[in-house]
Amino acid sequence: xxxxxxxxxxxxxxxDENSAKKSSDTSTIIQYLSFVLGKEEYGVDILRVQEIRSWxxxxxxxxxxxxxxxxxxxxxxxxxIIDLRERFSLSKPEYTPLTVVVVLQTGSxxxxxxxxxxxxxxxxxxxxxxxxxxxxxxxxxxxxxxxINGLVSVxxxxxxxLDVDKLLLLETLEQNDY
Amino acid sequence: MSIDMSQFHQVFFEECFEGLEAMESGLLSLDxxxxxxxxxxxxxxxAHSIKGGSGTFGFTVVAEYTHIMETLLDEMRDGRRQVxxxxxxxxxxxxxxxxxxxxxxQNEEDVNAESVAVxxxxxxxxxxGESSAxxxxxxVATPAINTxxxxxxxxxxxxxxxxxxxxxxxxxxxPYLNLLKTGNDPVRLFRELSAxxxxxxxxxxxxxxxxxxxxxxxxxxxxxxxxxxxxxxxxVREIFSWVEEDCELELSPLAKPKKKKKPKVATxxxxxxxxVVETKEVIAPVIVPPPTTVVKKxxxxxxxxxNAPKASSSIRVDTDKIDTLINMVGEVVIxxxxxxxxxxxxxxxxxxxxxxxxxxxxxxxRDLQQSVMNIRMLPISFVFSRFPRLxxxxxxxxxxxxxxxxxxxxTEVDKAVVELINDPLVHLIRNSLDHGIEMPAERxxxxxxxxxxxxxxxxxxxxxxxxxxxxxxxxxxxxxxxxKAIEKGLVEESAIMTDKQILELIFMPxxxxxxxxxxxxxxxxxxxxxxxxxxxxxxxxxxxSELGKGSTIAIHLPLTxxxxxxxxxxxxxxxxxxxLVSIIESINITEKMLNKVAGKGExxxxxxxxxxxxxxxxxxxxxxxxxxxxNEGVIVVVEGQGALCGFLxxxxxxxxxxxxxxxxxxxxxxxxxxxxxxxGDGSVALILDVPGLVRLSVC
Lengths: 178, 699
Fold this sequence. Notes:
The complex is a heterodimer. Chain A is an alpha+beta fold. Chain A has helices at 2-24, 84-87, 164-168, 170-174; strands at 29-37, 40-45, 49-54, 68-74, 77-83, 100-108, 111-119, 121-129, 148-154, 157-162. In chain A, a hairpin with a 2-residue loop joins strand 9 and strand 10. Helix content of chain B is 39%, strand content 21%. Chain B is built from 20 helices and 22 strands. In chain B, strands 14-18-19-17-16-15 form a six-stranded mixed beta sheet. The relative contact order of chain B is 0.06.
């Protein structure tokens, strides 16, 4: 129980930090890396992206949710790979030469984690005025609202901006099992 | 000009904690009644360097506090004070208090003024209570062997004027012989001093040799100076800052402080470091801070509990070890360039050369690995050294007579193990103290020596370190254990158990046989946690106990947590690593050896025992590959949770040393898996957590 509280505190702290960042540079444009999941387009803060790799077979980890595909060796570090398409129940997971893994990092200070997310393809780097971001409406169904930071329209397409920190906090979801 | 001192803080704290440990062990080894002057000197030196360091870094609270301790120790050292058990206890308390203060400072918290004040007043009571310049006739003479010949000092103490109204400083300045050679001129110092106020100089020339033997380049003169001035101590000291390496300097204020303090004798830190300036400020009247409310104290305690202490993550390494490492790296570089040369224009006739080169590289890599691992190795004394204090405190509290014997303190073990083994050991030793060793009367009645012995022993065996806690106490009563377990409903009444199994009962959660709970142990939450901690380190724990004769608890731990010997096994087309230490044997089984329990659980008969089979394929939900029947695969017999068990895998792949990588660093804990490693082909294999798996399969 206390662990969970700590996690929540951690999230709060992260959010505080983010909001602090936002207030310090209000006029700036933020860049997002956009990628495609099924037919939808999503974006993540480009500063959170460590690298983009092609899909390679993973070592399966037993008894974890199906969308946690397994772990790979990323230059000596053991990095989990999450299939976002399965996480959001979007498209059938097919692994083609075009399937890419976006390696994201989260956390602050000494405690950072990295994690790879599988997406169908990476499309673009988009620059967004902060004021153009709309808050996310309640979807109710497929994507639980908590991962969505906001919506933005780019060339008539809708891009959903994901909150990397929340996305990568696997523990909060499965903590109760342990 | 100002230097950022904070960069040195870490080192300072480490040194302080080392000093405190030295003081503590010194104090504990003091044999009341037969005092070894060198032992007191050691304690004094530690206190002194803490004082010096904290003064330098501006931690005046610590400096002032240590100063009182130092005064007390100084008197003991000179034999002016008898070393009593009470004094030792007060000093031990002060060591704790100092440690607390330093920890708070290190964590940038406020020092708990209340507890400091309590300890400080205890110290002062001790200091003033029976302190006297008149040495009691029965005091054990403990000549301060390091005292430098400086007759002025003692004179000064005795003749120190009782009532002196003027403000100023009395300075005793004894230059070493080489003062003039370093280009310093005392006259210049005096001139500067006289600029501060009215200066009276008094020259001591009794050390000046005969004219024939006189070396004009040596300074044989010392001075007693009286400076009437309102200059602060630091101002006066500053004037001497250039010569402080070359003289003995003592400052005392002319005006007596309100609280009469004992005069002090200045002595160099040790004979080997002759040039030491004694910081001799007289303690200002102690300001006892207004007592803070209990509520505040409680909150500060809970605060400190919340903020995990800033663990020091540095490590001290012998230069020898680093030199070996550098040599090794050199070798690797040479081999690498040799291989590079072969590869540059490679022809088939160079294959032999290449093979030799690769073999060499392999050897060097292994050596390199070993010496890097060596750097992480610390002697187990880092843990052991804390226990004499623990035993001392608890045995006093329990009115038991106990000696602690440490064996094999220099056995080296990985730093991570050192850090994690402490708590379990504390628990086990407390148990031995509390439950194991009997009261003196009981011991005599049982025909044992009055004083109980607890032996803490560490040694290497195979790839393991074994730590044993041996006591000669009452041992464990198996029938009582069993009765208790039945009473608590942990065991069926009809259960048939071996002696070993009965002893293992104490590791069950919620098991405690102590008739009376005490604050030392007996709440029954301990042993299962101890076992779990040790297992999480990849070790195991055994008990041997004989009623009336004592118990032995043996902890087996891997030498390092970074590398393990593993057996890679195939399950489907996945590869897993089973730690070699938990494997008893691997066998192919035949249909005949198989049995079913209740139509479901599978067992097989290994010699005379029936062992459960855990199908790795099922427990890990492996869907690829073929083998479904036990007799098509291989049974790896492992030991976990004190029980044997067979893992059914498809194939044995080979043994290798694997580097343990954390799965939790980027991911999370996975049941049944203790970590991951990277195989030769770059892919990741999971390392099995054998006890965890056994647990998983039972549930």
